[in-house]
Amino acid sequence: IEALKEYNVTFDELSSIEKDPGLGNGGLGRLAACFMDSLATQNYPATGFSIKYEFGLFKQKIIDGWQTELPDDWLTTSDVWLIPKTEERVIVKFDGSIREEWSPDGLKIYHDFATEVEAIPYDLMISGYKSDGVSLLRLWESRSLNSFDMNLFSQGDYIRALSEDSMAEAISKVLYPADNHNEGKILRLRQQYFLVSASAQTIVKNHYKKYKTLDSFSKKNAIHINDTHPALIIPELMRIFMDEYKLTWEKAWNLIINTVSYTNHTVMTEALETFDENIVRTKLPRIYMIIQEINRRFMQEASSKYNDYSKAMNMSIFGYGRVNMANMCIIGSHKVNGVAQLHSEILKRTIFKNFYEYSPEKFLNVTNGITHRRWLNQANPLLKDLVENLVGRGYSTSPEKLNMLKFFKDDDSVLSKLDDIKYQNKKVLAEYVRKNNHIDINIDSIFDIQAKRLHEYKRQLLNALRIINIIIDINEGNTADLVPETFIFAAKAAPGYQRAKEIIQLIFALSEYVNKNTFIKKYINVV
User: Fold this and answer.
1) Is the whole model's pTM more than 0.70, yes or no?
2) Any idea where the domains of the chain sit in the sequence?
3) N or C: which end of the chain has fewer CB within 10 A?
4) Cβ atoms of 272 and 323 closer than 8 Å
5) pLDDT digits over 99-122, tens only?
6) Is the distance from CB of 40 to CB of 134 less than 8 angstroms?
7) CA–CA dist 473, 333 (Å, integer)
8) Nearest to residue 191, comparing CAs of 222, 170, 217, 160?
9) DSSP states of 244-292 as a string?
């Protein structure tokens, strides 16, 4: 900060230039980021794994009310923090066929005609708060192993010369590519396997290098599946343990089940990820074989316990031509949790009811918290100062001290200061809206804010319908009971989610209508 003063630059000005890394979004990304901060602050050694998405999720631009997706080139400013570890690259295999051969040393597995993709690691260090702890975020970049085909290129066959490179490198281009078509579904599967294969190979290799045995693997490692996207870590670990380290099925499975845990983030059926069985079979042939055997053994055990095959079928990884990732996560984990007490109870009573009856000891609740160091201290410095004055600075590493705030719940002086902080923050937000959206909003109005991904179940549409109802009341002269209100929406719709894009179009149209009508603007704003 002192060095910046010499150049007449503030730290806020400098930090505003850096773009957010396009590595995750929503509850999954937020929880992962909070984990990394908390683990580092408490001096736990931890590594998070993700893909180095070149263009992130996407940059949203509203054109004539319609969401348009543009590349989010976040790496132009943020790649300076990434440390390439090219010497730790690994190979990930797709496609091809599996050949089995018995030898005096046992069964050998050969992956013939595989498409090989190189995974290049880049490391980002995440420091803890006033601690020596540093978490490591390892990001994988995909590259083709095939050298450029100069012969094809010289013959003018440019597409074929570049096709394999393009297919390999597409894996690390975009977070959540559109999957409303078959190629998008295949790309998502490739992304998920690429992530878990590169990560699992690294975890196992590092463990074996240090301990010279896998016997202690489950005692020295804890692997967390953050929703179903990394579910393939379970069969991939089985592949590595059996095919590369020659462990028996029973020993490999015992290590995995005592290492892996699974967090479920939602009870929505559409979020309980499934993949077409034929796609998994053709794109990941060895993994498909292992999933089949995991399921066969589990179904045999469950059918025997229940003496009811139909009940066991509800827990099968396979069904209706799909591979159920959530079921695989539960079968291969020693702990399964929801992210709120009610959510965890719903999991046990409804969608995972049979699993809960089968192994109740697996299920628990872990309520999603936030790291107050980011979401209070950094996000709201005025409130941070007030809290520090009331309970002391120690709450940053001992959050239980925040309970002391209850003693001030009826303190008029404290409540007055809290109101003023809210008002000052509303002024900051209003200025941001004026600069970026060119809309002047009433600071004294109620701010009704929805900042989350655009989805029907998030119910932005319900809020839009409420706005329409208020507009009708204003136009009909029913304004006596109206309190000025500002509705602020911040959301992106998935590129292939047509209905969500139409809701954005509706909200944009409402904003245009309201902000052009000076009479209506006295009562509401829409941003």
Assistant:
1) yes
2) 24-43+88-116+140-365, 441-526
3) N
4) no
5) 999 888 888 999 999 999 999 999
6) yes
7) 54
8) 170
9) IT---HHHHHHHHHTTEEEE-----GGGS-EEEHHHHHHHSHHHHHHHH
The CB-side HSE value for 495 (13 A sphere, CA atoms) comes to: 18
Contacts of 363 (CB under 8 A, 6+ apart): 335, 336, 337, 344, 347, 348, 352, 355, 356
**And the tokens for 195?**
């992530």
Report yes or no: 229 and 189 within 8 Å, Cβ to Cβ: no
Find, among 14, 50, 272, the residue nearest to 142 by Cα.
50
Read off φ and ψ for residue 382, nearest 5 degrees: -65, -45
Residue 159 scores a pLDDT above 80: no
Asked whether 119 and 196 are in contact (CB, 8 A), the reply is no
Q: What is the pLDDT of residue 158?
A: 54
Closest listed residue to residue 312, CA positions, set 263, 347, 357: 357
Chain-centre distance of CA 440, in angstroms? Answer: 34
Spatial neighbors of 481 by CB under 8 A, at least 6 apart, are: none
Q: 216-222: which pairs have CB atoms within 8 A and are 24 or more residues apart? A: 217/255, 217/259, 218/254, 218/255, 218/256, 218/258, 218/259, 221/259, 222/259, 222/261
Residue 2's pLDDT is 81
- The DSSP output letter for 214 is S
Residue 39, both tokens: 């683990």
What is the distance between the alpha carbons of residues 267 and 228, in angstroms, rounded to a whole number?
12
Number of H helices, E strands in the chain: 22, 19
Reported as a single tens digit per residue, the pLDDT across 367-403 is 988 899 999 999 999 999 999 999 999 999 999 999 9
May I ask the CATH class of domain 24-43+88-116+140-365? Answer: alpha beta
The full DSSP string for 405-428 is GGGGTT-HHHHHHHHHHHHHHHHH
Buried b (16+ CB within 10 A) or exposed e, 137-149: bbbbbbebeeeeb
pLDDT at 105: 80
Query: Sign of the CA dihedral 336, 338, 342, 343?
Result: negative
Separation in Å, CA 339 to CA 172, 237, 334, 372, 387: 29, 26, 17, 17, 27
Q: Determine the Cα–Cα distance for residues 470 and 524; give it in Å rounded to an integer.
A: 8
Residue 161 has pLDDT above 60, yes or no: no
* Residue 47 to residue 134: CA distance in whole angstroms: 9
